[in-house]
């Protein structure tokens, strides 16, 4: 799949900034869209096929409040990411022509016993303290909102401003919008290393002239964005940044129910349920250190099925459709790594999105485009700089 789009033709006529994005997951596609939309001649190099890794496997929640463990810079960033999403989605649909099934049904986070209730009450308190919208509900009130909910649910917090989307369609929407804006996508193109200029040993400032492919050929660029997900740490030439990524496996079990059987996405401390418009119901997930192994396991299926049936007992009779697993890209502190490389000045990191890459996709595209174009991003990125690993 290789087009010769408008932006590349323009680049030949006059000096236009050329960018290479490594990785065609949701992050690479979002970055490519925002760069191409600003006239940057952008090429996405994807070693396999666009959007087939973590971005395909995810559940698609735009859920800053359900995922967050506590207040702080990451929670603030996630809340801004939700707003960025809300502000971007109509433009994305217009420019890409793909409907990502963005649903505004909210999230209901339920407690099924007294211990869980204590944890959720704490969550409601700190979130209200930082101005997030949370409604505390009794079990009966929660069942009024979602009648399929277990009679064991004794308490719930409703997060009406959290969202969901079909992440596979969303990734395609970013890719389609990027292509229409002139970005080139090359599939089956594995990047091995940065093509570095200058010798590190002599202390000379090193730049990347582009990237080196696995067949030894070089592709030139003024700017390189590393969006290679769980594999981003394997691109040679950035070792001095000391950014390490590891995969955290998550399994999903998919059932079939009648469309609209369940309204809001349902969360509990035992798992979650996310409905799709066509009647698929995704139950998740696991958090496993299993290397790059994407197997679905009996232990994973058991855990997820038990959690799903605890939230909605009627699911015990729902037809099983399929199950899959994907690899969440995690840094050592589980925060994303965003912005310029401290060691190679024209290379940027856009990786480590861990459990929140769908939520963070729109804002990541936005801030990386800001940095490439020399603007100061509207959000504070200090906590996500690669520099934090050099100091460790
Ligand atoms: C089960 C599960 C549920 C999830 N649920 C949610 C959710 O509800 N909400 C949410 O916000 N997030 C969720 N996530 C997290 C989310 O899926 C990820 O954070 C996000 O998809 C990461 O996107 P990415 O583009 O960085 O990585 P990927 O989608 O993994 O893409 C990286 C791409 O880089 C390519 N690549 C790698 N190395 C090279 C190379 N050397 N050269 C060229 N290309 C290369 C790969 O082939 C791949 O296509 C979930 C994840 C899982 C596994």
Structure commentary:
The protein is an alpha/beta fold. It contains eleven helices and 19 strands. It has helices at residues 6-13, 26-37, 54-57, 64-67, 73-96, 114-129, 139-145, 167-180, 298-311, 361-372, 387-390, and strands at residues 18-22, 41-46, 61-62, 107-111, 135-138, 155-159, 163-164, 184-187, 191-197, 207-213, 218-220, 223-226, 246-256, 265-268, 271-275, 280-284, 320-330, 337-340, 347-351. The chain has an eight-stranded mixed sheet with strand order 5-6-4-14-15-16-13-17. Strands 8-2-1-12-19-18 form a six-stranded mixed sheet. β10 (207-213) and β11 form a beta hairpin. α2 (26-37) packs parallel to α8, α2 (26-37) crosses α10 and α5 crosses α10 (361-372). The radius of gyration is 21 Å and the shape is elongated. It starts with 5 loop residues before the first helix and ends with a helix. The mean pLDDT is 94. Flavin-adenine dinucleotide is lined by residues 22-28, 45-48, 52-55, 57-61, 190-191, 227-231, 235, 250, 252, 284-285, 326, 328-329, 351, 353-359.
């Amino acid at each position: 799949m290789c087009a010769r789009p408008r932006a590349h033709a323009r680049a030949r006529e006059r000096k236009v900034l050329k960018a290479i994005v490594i990785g065609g997951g949701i992050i690479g596609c979002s970055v490519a869209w925002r760069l191409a939309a600003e006239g940057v001649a952008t090429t996405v190099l994807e070693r396999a096929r666009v959007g087939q890794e973590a971005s395909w496997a995810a559940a698609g929640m735009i859920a800053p409040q359900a995922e967050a463990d506590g207040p702080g810079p990451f929670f603030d960033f996630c809340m801004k990411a939700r707003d960025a999403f809300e502000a971007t989605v109509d433009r994305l649909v217009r420019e890409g022509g793909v409907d990502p099934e963005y649903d505004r049904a909210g999230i209901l986070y339920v407690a099924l016993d007294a211990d869980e209730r204590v944890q959720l009450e704490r969550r409601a308190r700190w979130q209200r303290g930082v101005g997030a919208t949370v409604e505390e509900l009794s079990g009966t009130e929660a069942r009024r909102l979602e009648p399929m909910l277990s009679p064991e649910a004794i308490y719930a917090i409703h997060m009406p401003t959290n969202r969901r989307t079909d992440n596979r369609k969303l990734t395609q929407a970013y890719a389609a919008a990027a292509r229409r804006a002139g970005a080139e996508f090359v599939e089956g193109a594995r990047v091995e290393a940065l093509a570095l200029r200058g010798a590190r040993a002599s202390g000379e400032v090193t730049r990347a002239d582009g990237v080196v492919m696995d067949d030894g050929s070089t592709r030139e660029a003024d700017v390189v964005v590393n969006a290679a997900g769980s594999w981003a740490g394997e691109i040679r030439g950035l070792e001095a940044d000391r950014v390490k990524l590891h995969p955290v496996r998550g399994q999903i079990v998919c059932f079939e129910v009648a469309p609209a059987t369940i309204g809001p996405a349902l969360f509990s401390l035992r798992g979650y349920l996310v409905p799709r418009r066509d009647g698929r119901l995704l139950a998740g997930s696991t958090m496993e250190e299993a290397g790059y192994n994407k197997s679905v396991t009996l232990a994973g299926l058991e855990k997820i099925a038990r959690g799903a049936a605890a939230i909605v007992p009627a699911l015990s009779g729902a037809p099983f459709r399929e199950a899959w697993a994907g690899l969440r890209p995690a840094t050592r502190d589980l925060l994303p790594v965003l912005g310029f490389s401290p060691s190679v000045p024209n290379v940027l990191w856009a990786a480590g999105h861990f459990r929140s890459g769908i939520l963070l996709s729109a804002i990541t595209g936005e801030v990386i485009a800001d940095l490439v174009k020399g603007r100061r991003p509207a959000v504070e990125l200090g906590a996500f700089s690669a520099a934090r690993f050099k100091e460790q």
